[in-house]
Design goal:
alpha+beta, 58% helix, globular
């Protein structure tokens, strides 16, 4: 993929603009509806689940990668969890590149494949590793390149919304998981399961 380099750099410049700081400067409160139900945010699990997990993640975050298999297992085995992905690339420029490619893959119905492939990589990612991981997931690379370029503004707008939402919540880093009414960071399978159980109890008592 060659033409996408200019697109990614333009997207990075927009992402690093004043959007997050201005959100705070304006005293903007977290918008729960936007965080939970952005129509362009990728969703997995049960769309009608009784507990929603919102995951703020970076593909260069080792703790995100460590927790990913346990979170996926919980969502699969529980059957009543709705998982909302918030790509929040805050670690490196390559994090932005990876997030944009993953979100471009969503336009061919392959976000989950791209996400899982990137989360399965080891260590800090370079551009070549990102592209190789996504290609290895069986994603149509010609269409991906077309969507990276053609959907650039849409993808960048979603990433900016994610960043503004994270800032409005006062998040300090990745991973951050909003599980029902609770906020947590890295968990193993048992930890995720317990927080989900606590969320169900809390919701039932309200």
């Amino acid at each position: 993929m060659q033409r996408d380099r200019r697109t990614i750099i333009r997207g990075l410049a927009l992402l690093l603009a004043a959007t997050p700081r201005s959100a705070l400067a304006q005293g903007r409160d977290p918008d729960a509806e936007a965080i939970l139900n952005d129509p362009e945010a990728p969703v997995s699990g049960n769309p009608k689940g009784d507990v929603t997990i919102v995951a703020f993640l970076d593909y260069n975050c080792p703790f995100c990668k460590k927790a990913a298999p346990d979170l996926a297992r919980l969502v699969r085995e529980d059957g009543q969890i709705r998982l909302v992905y918030k790509d929040w690339p805050v670690i490196t420029e390559t994090s932005v590149y990876a997030a944009q490619l993953a979100l471009a893959a969503a336009h061919q119905g392959a976000y989950a494949k791209a996400h899982d492939a990137l989360m399965a990589t080891k260590g800090r990612l370079g551009r070549e590793q990102v592209a190789a991981a996504i290609k290895g997931a069986g994603i149509d690379m010609a269409r991906l390149e077309a969507d990276v370029n053609g959907k650039s503004a849409q993808i960048t707008a979603l990433l900016r919304r994610n960043m503004a939402q994270a800032e409005s919540l006062g998040l300090q880093g990745t991973p951050t998981y909003l599980i029902g009414p609770f906020r947590t960071s890295t968990q193993d399978y048992a930890g995720f399961k317990q927080v989900v159980a606590d969320a169900r109890k809390k919701q039932a008592s309200q």
